[in-house]
Amino acid sequence: MSDQTKSWLDSRLPLAACFRAQVCDKPLPANRPYLSALGTLITGTLIFLMLSGAVLSAYYVASDHGAYNSIQFIMRNVNDGWLIRSFHATGTTMLFAAVYLAIFHALITGAYRLPGELVWGLKLAFLLLMMLVGYLGYAMQDGAVSHWSLHDVTLAGAGLSSFPGNISNWVLGGPAGHGTLGHVAMMHGLLTFIALGVLVLHYYAKQAVAPVAKKTVPLHPYYTSHHFVAVSVYVLLFAVLVFFAPHLGENPLNAAPANPLLVPAVMTPPWYLLPAAAVTHALPGTEGGIVAFFAAFAVLFAMPWLDRSDPRSEPGFLYKLLVVILGLDVIALGMTAAAGPSTINAILMIIFIGWYFLHFLVLTPLVTARESK
Amino acid sequence: MKLGISAAALLAAFLAFGSAAYAEDTLSPLHWQSQGTFGSYDQAALQRGFLVYQTACASCHSANALHYRDLTALGLTTEQVADITASIKLDNRPATLDDRLISALPKSQAAAAFGGAVPPDLSNIVAARPKGTEYIYNLLTGYQAPPADVTLMAKHYYNAAYPGNQIAMPAPLTDNAVTYADGTKATTAQEASDVAAFLTWASDPNLDARKQIGLRAVIFLIFLTLLAIATKRKIWRDVA
Question: CATH topology for B41-137+175-205?
Fold first, then answer.
C-alpha cells in the first residue's frame, strides 16, 4: 500500500490506529495469573466450534432419516470428516471445561461481588446459552439415547400449558416430527451467535469495572507471549483428547441409531450436561424439572447479593472451603445422573441438590457475614 | 528451566503411558492389537474377521455404513475385493465394489425366523456398546445351557454376556465354521476374537490415521509449548 493510499484510508477509516491503540499498545496489569487467559481460550474455542460446525453443516441432514446417516457419511466418506467432527465434539468438551473453571474461579475469588455483578451475570448467561447449544448439538445426532431425550424435552415443552402460547409449537414449529431436527439444528447455530455476542458484552463489562493497575505493560508483546503459553498448553490437551480419546464423556449407547420402539434404560447425556440433568430430575413432573433447573441458576445469579461481605475484602478461608465442597457436590451430582435410576441414587441426588441450595441460600450469607466482621 | 523439565517429563509420561497400555494388552489372552494408546489394527485378524462376518453374520445382519470398496483398508487389493464381491449375490446380480454390506435375507424375513427380533445393523455396534470389542467377543462365546431356575422364552437362547441373558440369536459360531487361508486354527474363540476385531474396524475405520496424526501433533505441540514458555520468559524478564 502506498503512503498516499495509507494516509487516505487512515483519515477515512482509522483501522490501523485503532488496532494499535486497542490491541497492540493497550495497557494491561503487569501481574496476572495464567487463568486470566481463560477468556481468550473460551472465545477462541467458540469461534473454532463455529468454523468446524459450519463445515459439518455442509453435510449434516436435519431429518428423521437423514441425521444419523449423514453423520456416518461425515465420519466415513467425507475427506477428514472424522477429524472435523472430533474437533467439534472435543472442542465442546474443552469449552465446557474452561467455562466451568471460569465460573468456579469467579466464585472462589469473589469476582462476582459488586461492582462485578454484571460481569458475573453475563458469565452465567453464557453458560446457560452454551448448555442449550450443547444440548441441541447432542440432540442433533439423533442417536438411540438423544432421540428419546429430545422426545422427552419436546413433550416437556408441550406440557407447559400454563405458559402463554405453546412453547413447544413456538420452538419446534408444531408437534415433534419431521421438522423437529431442522428447528433444533437452526437453534443450535443461532444461539451460538447470541452466545458470541454475550462474550463481547462480558469483555466490555469486565473492562469497565477492572481495578486500576499500579503497574502496566502493553498487550504486545507481553500479553501475546503470555497467552501464547496458555493457548499452547490448552491446544496440547485438546490434541491429546481429539486423537486419543475422541469420545470422552459420551454415552456409547448413543452411537447406535435411534430406535423409535425402544427407550434406553439409562439416558445419560454428555458429561457437561450431567449436573443439569440431575437437577431437572429433582422435582416430580415436567414443570418441577424446569422450575428446579431455573432455580439452580437463579441462586447463582443472586450470588452478588447473597454474599454479605465487604466487596473489597479478600474471601475468607471457610468461604473458600465451602466453594471447593460445592464444586465436589456438583461433580457428585453429575455422577448420580450418570449412574442411572435407582433408589439409592434418588436419595443421593436429593442430598446433593439439597446441599447445593443450602450452600447458596443459607451457608453463603451466614459465613460471608461472619467472616467479614 | 523448571517448566522445561516438567514439559519433558510430560512427554516421557505420555510415551510411557502409551507403551505400558500397549504392553499390558499383549500379555492378556484376549488381546486386540488396536487397543492401547498407540495400538493399530492387525490386518490379518481383520481379514479373518471379515471371512467370519461373511460366513456367520451377513445372512441376517447388515453393515450398511460400509461399502465393499472399504475392504481395501483390511490390506486386500481391489482385485481381491472384486473376487469377493463377485461371489456375493444381490437380487440376481453379483455385488460390486460400490454396494453397501446389506444382509442376504431381508430384515423382515430374518426377524420372522428368530421370534420377531430384528437383527441390528453392525456398522457401529462396537462403538455403541460399552467396551464394545470385549462385548462382541463375550457375547459370541457366551452361549451356555440355562441355569436350572431360568425358564427361557420361546425361540430364545441363554447367553451369559447378553443383558437379561435371553437372546433371540442362536449361537452363530462353531469350531471350524470357516477355513482360514492363513492356516490359523478356527476355534469358536478365535472366530469370535477375529470378528470382534473386524467389527471394531467397522465402527472406527480411522483409528490408525487418528493415532498416527495424533502422535505427531502431540510431539509438535509439546515442543511448541516449550518454545512458548521460553519466549514468554525472555520477554517478561524485565517485568518484576
Answer: Cytochrome Bc1 Complex; Chain D, domain 2 (1.10.760)
